[in-house]
Amino acid sequence: MITLYSYPGLFGVADNNGYGLKVFAFLRLAGLRFVHRHIVDASGAPRGQLPYITDGPETVGDSDTIIAHLARAHGARLDDRLTRAQRDTGLLITRLLDDLYWVMSYARWKDDRFWPAFRDALLRAHPDLTEAGLQAARAFNFQRYHYQGIGRFDPEAAYARGLADLAVLANLVPPDGYLFGPEPTSVDAGLYGFIANIHFFPIDTPLRRCVASRANLVRHCTAMHAAVNASDREEAGAQP
Questions:
Q1: Stretch 49-67: mean pLDDT, rounded?
Q2: Above 90 in pLDDT, residue 115?
Q3: In this structure, are residues 207 and 163 in contact, taking their beta carbons and an 8 Å threshold?
Q4: Which residues contact 235 (CB under 8 A, 6 or more apart)?
Q5: What's the confidence (pLDDT) of residue 237?
Q6: What is the pTM of this model?
Q7: Residue 94: how many CB atoms within 10 A of its CB?
Q8: Alpha-carbon distance 139 to 61, whole Å?
Q9: In terms of CB atoms within 10 Å, which end of the chain has fewer, N or C?
Q10: Is the link from the previous residue into 51 a cis peptide, with omega within 30 of 0?
Q11: Is 124 exposed, middle or buried (0-12, 13-18, 19+ CB in 10 A)?
């Protein structure tokens, strides 16, 4: 049995981190059975980062490496029909999402305007978390932001990067269907992982306002959310 280890969910989203939600979405879309374990301490994870999976004797970290493993070991074929050009575009989108990640994280943990709402939401949703633990995580993230570089930007300059990323994504997402046709692929799972963690969070950051103003991003996000969570409804309907 595959076990996915990732951060806790929040605001109805299965993981409040874009990378973990990306893997969760891929597993659901691929129809693979798995157990989802929410954890906070990543010290035991490969390279000390979440998400990761265990699959029999194997432990696999990094969201893209996990997806490649699932395709190879379990026949997950979401991307089989993609052309070489589409795969190249998908890689460019994936790298852009890597950039967007830092701005999203900055908005939650560093910006004093939004940090209290994020902190309080986590504490309400997950009573096992403590304010002291979240403050320690915040201090750790400040160090990460400094060494990555985003922490040296003032807020408006930091958000300008994320807004530019979202503008490009909005130009690429079609008005209907998914990125490369009527069926979702791993790139859609990745896009959902990040946009859902902006759109469904009722914290009024510049990123959320931008997503709300782009009807195609909202449509894609809500369509993916419905597709990814369809099995929850099916399981609930099967119960007496």
A1: 96
A2: yes
A3: yes
A4: none
A5: 41
A6: 0.94
A7: 16
A8: 24
A9: C
A10: yes
A11: exposed
